Amino acid sequence: MDASSQRPRLRYAGVGAGILLCLLGALLFFVVPFDANVHDPTVHDKACGTPVGMWTRADARVTLRKVASLPPPRGAASPAEQRAQLARVDRVVEAAKRYVPCREAMRPRTIAAGVLVFLGAVTVVLFLGLRRDPVTSQWKLGFAASLALIAVFAAGMRVSFSFYSAQYRILGFDADYYNRGWHTIGGSFPSALFPPAFTTYIAAVSAVGIHARLWHIVFSGLLGVSLVVMTALLGRRIGGERVGLTAGLIASAYPVFINADGAIMADSLYAAFVAATLFVAFKARERASTRTWIVLGVLVGLATLTRGEGLLLIPFLLVPLALSIKAEILKRRLMALGTACLVVVVLLLPWTIRNLVVMHHFIWVSNNSATVIAGANCDETYSGLSKGFWRVECLQRGYTPDWSAQVANRVFNRAGPKYDETYQNNRSRAAAVRYARSHTSRFPAVVTARVLRTWGFYAPFRQMKIEAATETRTEEWQYVGWYVYLAMLPFAVYGAIARRRERKPIWPFLSVIAMVTFTSAVTYGNQRFRIAAEPAIIVLAAVGVTTFAAQLRRRRRSGPADPVDVEPVHAVTGS
To answer: pLDDT (tens digit, 9 = 90+) per residue, 231-277?
Structure first.
């Protein structure tokens, strides 16, 4: 049997071995079924959790504090209902005392399962992607196979981070909101505080029986792989395969991305949609194709349904993009722009109608703008250590005095005044606007502090410490990510200069950077807001790295100049 006939069999055998390794790892990992009652310590009462059903003592303590801090029942709550609530608090206390964190117990099996799945995925990709060059007879990986390996590596990094760091951190407010999933959209406590895209994703995970907080973190991290892939594809579109793979490799190990992926927040998904919008935008520069602009509208709509500021992609990216198409007349450019905007409206309309029906108010995207503005405009954020930042104390001052009791009434179905989220947020926003108008002289200093905070140049260490404490981030990874970000900036600037020398456009990247800067200026400074612009920064850094490496290779090939033969002076003069 010749070697050519053996190659398909060898490939099939390698792929089969890789799949077998993945199945063995999954069997080892999922040996315990998902526990739907993992959030309730009165039902899920075990001496130790499992990798699938994780409910840590830290979770119990947080729940205990939240329950104990609720005001007493009001209105028609009977003494029996009050005794039942107190009895539940007692059960939570007892469960918190008995519950034991399972870091050591779950570590050997988790490591073994993760290694098997990782090796299996790598094996499958290698045997499917390796090709022999007919000219040089060397084995090479194509772009798709190389990107698949990067994606596998990125997934492994994020799952490892979830298990050995993120699961033991207390959820911040935003992460806790998303972790509740469907309950905040159409369940027992409907809300429009945030757009629905990421919440729907977490709700879909819960819908198949995966309720544990740990697994919401894991699936949030796996969703972050899409950001890595889109960053690589964006790099390939503007600079070729080498730039694309370099950008993907940077994104896969970038601590800022990994930290965001393990936070159960919408940042990574939003950044992936922004990167996809940039990817299509570079194609749309060629001509005003209706199909391309429909795709742009879909991506901008999805970005807006993930984070409300995604709507700013229209004025900052789509409008200048439409005006920059030189090959088309102005009428076709405006028609293309109008098509994209119409698609955005169509995508947002179902959510807006839902808000009108469920929340009884017209809410275009979310109520989040009220909490953002209210928490960023007060004495504490206009001077002192929190200048340019956000404080929850500022937000609470805009609410009615009994708003916490109203929340409790709504959560526990009690009689009494019901909590109206939109009314309370509108009231808080109005108070913040009045404060801002009366302190316009402080605007330049406050706006400067906001922008510098977002880009990591204003009190960065204190900023990262606060973000780690309030936004489900790991403090150590915050610091490492900041240093990597600073090291990447010079290469990004160098890459931008290199593209300008080659007369290639960089303004779409600058548009996204300007959008992030504008968002911070009108709201508040936060380093996680920077994530929307970081795919552009990473791609420009990849351009800078590959350009610099190419220059080094050219210098090595040329080598030192040959010495010029010069006759001795005495031979010329005859001395």
So the answer is: 999 999 999 999 999 999 999 999 999 988 888 889 999 999 999 99
Write out pLDDT tens, residues 423-434. 888 888 888 999
Name the token pair of 5. 């006939």
- 444-456: per-residue pLDDT in tens? 999 999 999 999 9
The set of residues, in sequence order, having a beta carbon less than 8 Å from that of 424 and lying 6+ positions away, is 398, 399, 400, 403, 406
Between CA 515 and CA 520, with CA 516 as vertex, the angle to 5 degrees is: 115
Integer Cα distance of 419 and 384 in angstroms: 33
How many whole angstroms separate alpha carbon 367 and alpha carbon 426? 8
**Residue 143 is encoded by which pair of tokens?**
């772009």
CB 58 within 8 A of CB 168: yes
Quick one: residue 345, left, alpha or beta (phi over 0 = left, psi -120 to 50 = alpha)?
alpha
Q: Are 193 and 367 in contact (CB under 8 A)?
A: yes
Count the neighbouring beta carbons within 10 Å of the beta carbon of residue 460.
18
Rounded to the nearest angstrom, the gap between the alpha carbon of residue 189 and the centroid of all alpha carbons in its chain is: 25
Q: How far apart are the first and last CA of the chain?
A: 80
Sign of CA dihedral 68, 72, 78, 83: positive
User: What gap in Å lies between CA 21 and CA 575, rounded to an integer?
Assistant: 84
| pLDDT, tens digit (0-9, with 9 covering 90-100), for 176-197 | 777 766 556 655 577 888 899 9
Dist CA 23 CA 52 (whole Å): 17
Q: How far apart are CA 347 and CA 299, in angstroms?
A: 10
Residue whose structure tokens are 């905007």? 341
Enter the pTM of the model: 0.82
Instruction: Find out whether 387 and 445 touch, Cβ atoms under 8 Å.
Output: yes
